[in-house]
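Structure (tokenized):
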């Protein structure tokens, strides 16, 4: 087979390409509002919108640009089919809690659909069946158990011996009447309605701490303070932990997406492989109306594993083998946080932090879970009952399985912390080629070097400013990524992803 395409040189998300998002000013002076919502993704924007519609004065604060985090780099499936999960959840937590989890996702999907209709939002919303497929005999049995869980919970689903895709498979299960959309167009509309309701948005404003009191004070990196009654953290790791130890209860994973133009017409549907390596498929459209096939997968812990560009290459090989790509128009990656029991943390930050809330740990299913989080936090602030409060509470009891996962994750952190300090680096900055990044030896100490295409060298101290682990070079996205808690930094050291709040130290070349 002759292959006449190549990966785009730089990552770019379809959702953010030509998105025409307005820019917002950074916070330049102290302000007072009823609620400060920190984080400009689907959870933060929806929470801010809902609170403003309740009549609260709300400030939405984002460290970078709104919608340029995980929400702008998702595969944008609006579905309650969150991988093979319901049989597992019934086994670990019982039928009642598994049913609540499904209904929370279904309620969120219905909310999104309702808002699209209410505001006539042009966001390429399409109802689709969602499928999990397998080419493994062992996983075929798991699919059968998952379908049995659907039946117990009243989830509309079915079994299929085949799917209309040219990939090897033995069976699949479908969850009917799910959906897909363009998340940035949808949330751009909610942002507009939020501002019309009196809300304010501040970009490039990093919240770093909270001084608790009758009136909380949210402190920002630049100095201005937001005085408020309620604080909502919709960042990945909560920007303020208050002894919640979230950095030890969550781990970060990255996954990858290609957007390809294929010679073959896509038959419709949203697909996910049951086994690893994961393969996620759905269709989309470019701004000029051309069909695009989105192929995702290749999850791994942030800062760990093989050279990251190889993850894109693995997806490219998959596309070449089965989907006759004419062009790879886009490539991008996303970061997701996962809790020890794989249920999100949504609710009070800690039992002792009054009127401070968090929403995190969406496990790659942020379109529904982020929306459910906003609805739950709205209800908690307005002192209304919500059926999902106990299920998602960050203070819920720790199961044996979750306790085991917690120990395993923190041993992994310790391993990478020690390994980074013991690594012997021999390469010098002079040996770094154009558009190459790697760890180098500078005066006997480990540093990070990247040389751009014009030959300019950027040197940083690779020690993560969160807890001191050594960051690793991410060649696919040209970033420095921490293998311990998932912080990410640019070539000049600026923070891209927390929990780190301070940049890497920039060194003289």
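Design, position by position:
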């Amino acid at each position: 087979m002759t292959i006449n395409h190549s990966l785009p040189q730089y990552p770019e998300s379809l959702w953010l390409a030509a998105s025409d998002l307005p820019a917002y000013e950074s916070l330049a002076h102290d302000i007072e509002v009823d609620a400060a919502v920190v984080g400009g993704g689907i959870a933060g924007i929806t929470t801010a919108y809902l609170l403003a519609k309740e009549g609260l004065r709300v400030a939405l604060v984002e460290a970078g640009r709104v919608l340029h985090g995980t929400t702008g780099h998702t595969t944008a499936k609006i579905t309650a089919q969150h991988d093979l999960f319901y049989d597992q959840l019934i086994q670990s937590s019982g039928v009642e809690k598994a049913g609540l989890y499904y209904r929370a996702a279904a309620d969120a999907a219905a909310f999104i659909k309702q808002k699209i209709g209410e505001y006539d939002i042009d966001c390429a919303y399409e109802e689709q069946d969602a499928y999990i497929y397998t080419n493994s005999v062992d996983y075929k049995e798991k699919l059968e158990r998952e379908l049995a869980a659907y039946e117990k919970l009243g989830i509309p689903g079915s079994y299929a011996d085949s799917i209309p895709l040219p990939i090897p498979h033995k069976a699949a299960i479908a969850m009917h009447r799910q959906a897909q959309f363009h998340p940035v167009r949808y949330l751009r509309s909610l942002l507009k309605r939020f501002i019309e309701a009196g809300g304010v948005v501040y970009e490039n404003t990093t919240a770093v701490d909270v001084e608790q009191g009758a009136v909380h004070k949210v402190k920002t990196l630049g100095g201005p303070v937001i005085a408020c009654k309620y604080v909502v953290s919709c960042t990945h790791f909560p920007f303020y932990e208050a002894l919640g130890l979230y950095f030890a209860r969550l781990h970060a994973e990255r996954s990858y997406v290609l957007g390809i133009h294929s010679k073959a017409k896509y038959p419709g549907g949203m697909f996910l492989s049951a086994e690893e390596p994961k393969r996620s498929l759905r269709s989309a459209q470019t701004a000029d109306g051309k069909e695009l096939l989105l192929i995702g997968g290749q999850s791994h812990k942030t800062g760990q594993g093989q050279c990251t560009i190889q993850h894109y290459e693995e997806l490219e090989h998959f596309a070449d083998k089965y989907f006759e790509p004419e062009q790879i128009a886009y490539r991008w990656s996303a970061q997701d946080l996962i809790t020890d029991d794989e249920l999100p943390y949504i609710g009070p930050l800690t039992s002792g932090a009054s009127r401070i809330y968090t929403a995190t740990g969406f496990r790659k299913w942020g379109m529904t879970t982020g929306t459910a989080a906003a609805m739950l936090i709205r209800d908690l602030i307005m002192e209304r009952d919500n059926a999902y409060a106990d299920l998602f509470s960050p203070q819920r009891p720790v199961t044996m399985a979750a306790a085991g996962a917690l120990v395993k994750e923190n041993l992994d952190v310790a391993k990478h912390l020690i390994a980074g300090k013991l690594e012997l680096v021999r390469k010098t900055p002079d040996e770094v080629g154009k558009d190459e990044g790697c760890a180098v030896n500078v005066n006997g100490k480990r540093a990070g070097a990247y040389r751009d295409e014009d030959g300019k060298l950027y040197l940083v101290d690779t020690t993560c400013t969160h807890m001191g682990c050594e960051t690793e070079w991410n060649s696919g996205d040209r970033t420095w990524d921490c293998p311990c808690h998932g912080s990410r930094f640019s070539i000049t050291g600026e923070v891209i992803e927390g929990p780190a709040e301070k940049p890497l130290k920039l060194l003289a070349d």
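Reviewer-requested clarification: The first strand starts at residue 31 and ends at 32. The two ends are 46 Å apart (CA to CA).
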